[in-house]
Automatic annotation (TrEMBL):
This is Glutathione S-transferase. It comes from Rosa chinensis. Residues 90-224 form the GST C-terminal domain. The keyword Transferase applies. PROSITE patterns: GST_CTER, GST_NTER. Belongs to the GST superfamily. Tau family.
Length: 233
């Protein structure tokens, strides 16, 4: 237990990437110390622990730093083998999970970032691209979750649940600020019901950013066209 208590997480309250790691730690029941980072004035510890990217999140376990959220999630699942498992044991199922996890990270999240950081015609195109990628994902999840299960990992949250809820959980705040309804229940009924159920999970409620504070932060993205709050991996 002594080793398990020596876990620290350098993160940022509104970062999707930080929230991924926070949720995984809570799911596994791992005690940890949270260190909030000011991304405009990064701590010397953060720069020491992640000298390559100089970004959050960074997990420090017994003095050893691990950077980048997806790598951290794998490390957590491999180090703390208790349930729930974030990745399936079966190699084929593990590969399928990794495929869709990559789609969320590289396709969906990238599309959302372009919407936030673009204007005019570029933003309109980014919205079209996001809708198309969400349609592809909706169809893919109909096959992956044929029963329309709330959670991809059965009763417990797994990797896809973590990525989905931390990416799309705050969708109402984004709708309010940017006026774009990505998580539309008519267009994407499975994804909408999935996110709705995930947002009601007790652990997700614990780590959700305050709605008003998140809206205030997102407002700064519109006039400045800068994404300082999402500098992370």
């Amino acid at each position: 237990m002594e080793g398990e208590s020596k876990v620290k997480l350098h993160g940022m309250w509104a970062s999707t990437y930080s929230k991924r790691v926070e949720l995984a730690l809570k799911l596994k029941g791992i005690p940890y110390e949270y260190i909030e980072e000011d991304l405009r004035n990064k701590s010397q510890l953060l720069l020491k622990y992640n000298p390559v990217h100089k970004k959050i999140p960074v997990l420090v376990h017994n003095g050893k730093p691990i950077a980048e959220s997806y790598i951290i999630l794998e490390y957590i699942d491999e180090t703390w083998k208790n349930a729930p498992k974030l990745f399936p044991e079966d190699p084929y199922e593990r590969a399928r999970i990794r495929f869709w996890a990559s789609f969320i990270q590289q396709q969906l999240f990238e599309s959302m970032s372009r919407i936030v950081t673009s204007h005019g015609e570029a933003q309109e195109q980014a919205v079209k691209d996001a809708f198309e990628k969400l349609r592809v994902f909706e169809e893919g999840m109909k096959e992956y979750l044929p029963g329309g299960a709330s959670f991809a990992n059965g009763e417990n949250l797994g990797l896809l649940d973590i990525l989905m809820v931390t990416t799309f959980g705050p969708h109402k705040a984004h709708e309010e600020v940017f006026g774009i309804k990505l998580m539309d229940p008519e267009r994407y009924p499975l994804l909408f019901s999935w996110i709705t159920a995930l947002n009601e999970h007790p652990l997700m409620k614990e780590i959700q950013p305050p709605y008003d504070k998140l809206v205030e932060l997102l407002q700064h993205f519109k006039p400045t066209n800068q994404a300082t709050g999402t500098e992370s991996h």
